[in-house]
Amino acid sequence: MNTRMRGHSDLYLVMILTLFSAVSGLLIAVANSLTKDRIAQVAVEKQKKALSEIISEFDSSNSETILPDPMDPFELIVCKKGDAVSGIAVKLSSRFLSPQDLQKLALATDTRQDQAYGDPIKLMVGFTPDRKISGVSVLDCRETPGLGTKVNTNQYKSNFIGQGIETKRWRVKKDGGHHFLARHDLDGRQGDRHLQGQSDGP
Amino acid sequence: MQLDYIKKELHRGVVTENPIFRIVLGMCPTLATTTNATNALGMGLSVIAVLTCSNAAISLLRNVIPNKVRIPAFIIVIATFVTVVDLLIAAFAPTLYEALGIFIPLIVVNCIILGRAEAFAAKNPVYPSLVDGFVMGVGFTVSLLLIGVIREYLGAGTLFGYAITPFKHEFILMSLAPGAFITLGLVLAGINHLQRSNDK
Question: Residue B34: inside a domain, yes or no?
Fold first, then answer.
């Protein structure tokens, strides 16, 4: 008689599902160990490319990564040309950004950061020495179509270039968009078009 | 003999029981990932890998899986293969990984995969289930590729990123969501028309 036709105790069903999950976990662990080095290498290459996009001129062998605290959710990368600082890149991940984290970065005081739909959205924002944004690059974004995918368009990213970080508020309007950076009003539906920067103070 | 069997099954997967054009399953990735031929092919190949492996594994385990928990057990098997494929694409095809984004993990909930597991693999031996997964995956890939080729050519004037006409033309609507619906609708209408003409 086929096993599927017999009645089974709840304990047996739990054991079967536990066993399936354990084997599944094992297979994924093997796949992860085989691919993690290559994935890390891809991430480093992507970060190098992002840096060259958002910081205009710097000596790539002369950039310095600063981790203010190992528990901090962001990295600061100081890019230099000769002895002069040509720009600072800030690497952010949406998963770990709390209002306090953003305060540390002087980016916002009143924003809520939720997890993204897929993995966290990871951004790299470049600043010039005079505290203006020199570029935004999306390191990781796995969103369904909508504002989440529009953050990766040049049209959207160019909205931020040249903006100061202290005098304006960025905010995504409540029409279906995700909460994103802070301190400028961004139209969630037309995310790549509007940047309504009111000077309403830090 | 074996070749005839494969040919017959391929005909079933690509033509008579095509998962997109005949059974109309898996519409989410069909509409979302066919912005160009490369993405369509990438998604299609990912689905072939997951569908073939999951069908074979589920068939192999069909007498061990109790009927009451068969759906969660199938989902665990499918999710395992999807995660492995996701990691492999992230490691070895990062550009495709970026382009397909969230739609690779979403293969887990693709109705074609669970549908074939439930309708075929859970009731048949390993070899026919493996072949069924492969041919259904090929049918899915061919369909996605057809829509991707049409959308890329009309939307950007290119095929697999290469310009194929001497003049440059762009029809941005075809690269956007409405272009997916329009193309799918027209292709479905064309296939139904051909089917009816053959039936007469």
Answer: yes
Q: Is residue B3 part of a domain?
A: no
Test B66 with A4 for CB contact under 8 angstroms: yes
Inter-chain contact B73–A20, Cβ cutoff 8 Å? Answer: yes
Global ipTM: 0.84
Q: What is the pLDDT of residues A10-62, one digit of tens each?
A: 899 999 999 999 999 999 999 999 999 999 999 888 888 888 888 877 777 77
Task: Return the number of CB contacts < 8 Å for A and B.
Answer: 75
Residue B131 Cα, gap to closest chain A Cα (Å): 23
What is the pTM for the complete model shown?
0.78
B174, two tokens: 């075809």
Of the candidates B72, B73, B83, which has its C-beta nearest A28's C-beta?
B83
CA-nearest of A197, A183, A157, A163 to A54 is A157
Residue ranges of alpha helices (H) inside chain B are 2-11, 27-32, 37-60, 70-92, 94-100, 111-116, 126-156, 177-199
Residue B172: inside a domain, yes or no?
yes
Residue B190 domain boundaries = 30-199
Nearest CA distance, B100 vs chain A (angstrom):
8
Q: Which amino acid is at B75?
A: I
A20/chain B closest Cα distance in angstroms: 7
CA atoms within 13 A on the CB side of B178: 3
In a domain, B125, yes or no: yes
